[in-house]
Each structure stands twice: as structure tokens, then as C-alpha cells.
Amino acid sequence: MALRIHHIVLDCVDASRVATFWSEVLGRDVLPDASADAAFIGAGEAGEPGWLFFSVPEPKTAKNRMHVDFESADRDAEVERLLALGATRVADHDEWDTRWTVLQDPEGNEFCVSQRPAGD
Question: Which residues form the VOC domain (predicted)?
Fold first, then answer.
């Protein structure tokens, strides 16, 4: 039996704030049963996993050991949209025939946006 991703989970100091940011990033609503300790974005139409946000007392202090990579046909435009939503640019890379930007959400969780190769 193969595994499939069920949820992407982020620990955060302010679950509501971080869930609202990711709701805008993903274009999906935060479900109304959110509490002060947790928030949830439901699964996407194309089978994308749901996202859970849990409040924890300690802030993030080091680089993520695992992160989410996104792909866009127009990386520059997507990065600008994400910056306007509250993301922070960490670095731009151009290696291994791929261009990507490392960003952080409002609590410092890293994620990447890469440029989809032409013709894909």
C-alpha cells in the first residue's frame, strides 16, 4: 500500500494569522471551525492535501528541515503576489536547470516557488 499526503501541518504561534496567509496563497478558505489553538484549510479540488495550523508556545528558531515547493508558469509574478500577501524573500537560485525563489511565511516557515520549464 502506498502512502499519500493527507495534511500539511505547520506549528505556529498564531494559527489564525498563518492560516489566513496560506489561505490567500492557496486560494482556498480557512474552514469556519477554527479555534484559538488550530485552524484548517480543506483539501483542494484536484486532490491537494488539507493544511492544518496548530498554535504552539515557542517561535520557529532554525531553518526548516522539510518544506513545500510550488511551481508556477510565471515565477516572478507569483513571487510578487506572495510578497504582497506578507511573505519575505530569502534567496533566489538558478541551478540544475531550475530557477526558484525561497520565501518565508509570516512566522518564518520556508517554502519555494520555481519556474515551470517552457512547454510543460
Answer: 4-116
